[in-house]
Amino acid sequence: MAQPQILILGPPGAGKGTQSSNIAGEFGVEHVTTGDALRANKDMDISDMDTEYDTPRAYMEAGDLVPDEVVNAIVDEALTTANGFVLDGYPRNIEQVEELEAMTDLDVILSLSVGREELIGRLTGRRVCEGCGANYHVEFDQPAKEGVCDECDADLVQRDDDSREAVENRLDVFEDTTVPAIDHYRDNDVFVEINGEQQPDSVWADIKGAIRRTIDG
Ligand code: ADP
Ligand code: ADP
Ligand code: ZN
Predict the structure, then answer these.
(1) What pTM did the predictor assign?
(2) Which atom of ligand 1 is nearest to the CA of 20?
(3) What is 5-29+83-216's CATH superfamily?
(4) 164, 170, 208, 212: the active-site residue
């Protein structure tokens, strides 16, 4: 069979990035993440797209969604060239769900569930590697040496949008706009809900089992 095409859904801070790295390593698929792609292109000129701001930066720093036109193009391009993928951070609204349906089929749809209080703690304590993008947490996932990445020795920093204020807004956007998009997938045969409040290893064991069952079954 061709490499699996996997979608991972869930609120900001649910562990999508952390678990997508595990999935990419175990199943040999590409990690396609709109968040990382947009962070690498924060200052791209989108003024020809008739949007409120001229670059993605202002949307992202406030924790608002970047316009669909920008994000759809990134995903379309990435999925066309990938041989198997785990898609993380997309779709985030109903329009994006429809775009994705027109682009590709999905073999497994994972949805990580985590409560709001836990998410706030995870996001405000998150640190990311400037070099390779690996995720850490000041309490739950510390590097061997404080402030330094285990993988590549680069510095760990806090994302601009992991401030308390931007986090609250991102969680509101999630509840108002992304939950209806996730609900769209609930009746799908390959939809699997995963308890994301467990320890990272237990979350991973559940995800690995769900993917194996779906692609073998
Ligand atoms: P997302 O990509 O969904 O926003 P991340 O994978 O970046 O989420 O995780 C958010 C933060 O929570 C990171 O600091 C990460 O180290 C931490 N984290 C991830 N999974 C867990 C878990 N199961 N328990 C506790 N903390 C976690
Ligand atoms: P999270 O930790 O919230 O899962 P991401 O890294 O996925 O964060 O996204 C960071 C920011 O990038 C979002 O708050 C939003 O501004 C923008 N973004 C990412 N994916 C999308 C998308 N599918 N549609 C619109 N904006 C997006
Ligand atoms: Zn690193």
Answers:
(1) 0.96
(2) 6
(3) P-loop containing nucleotide triphosphate hydrolases (3.40.50.300)
(4) 170
The tens digit of pLDDT for each residue in 67-91 reads: 999 999 999 999 999 999 999 999 9
Is 65 touching ligand 2 by the criterion CB < 6 Å?
yes
CA of 160 to the centre of ligand 3 (A): 18
- Is 145 an active-site residue? no
**What is the C-alpha separation between 205 and 195, in angstroms, rounded?**
11
Residue ranges per structural domain of the chain: 5-29+83-216
Confirm or reject: Cβ of 137 under 6 Å from ligand 1: yes
Q: What does 15-58 look like in DSSP terms, one character per residue?
A: SHHHHHHHHHHHHT-EEEEHHHHHHTTTT---GGG--SSSSSHH
In tens, the pLDDT along 105-160 reads 999 999 999 999 999 999 999 999 999 999 999 999 999 999 999 999 999 999 99
- Residue 76 contacts by C-beta under 8 Å, 6 or more apart in sequence? 99, 103
Q: Is 85 close to ligand 2, i.e. is its CB under 6 Å away?
A: no
Q: pLDDT (tens digit, 9 = 90+) per residue, 126-141? A: 999 999 999 999 999 9
For ligand 2, atom 15, the nearest C-alpha belongs to: 65
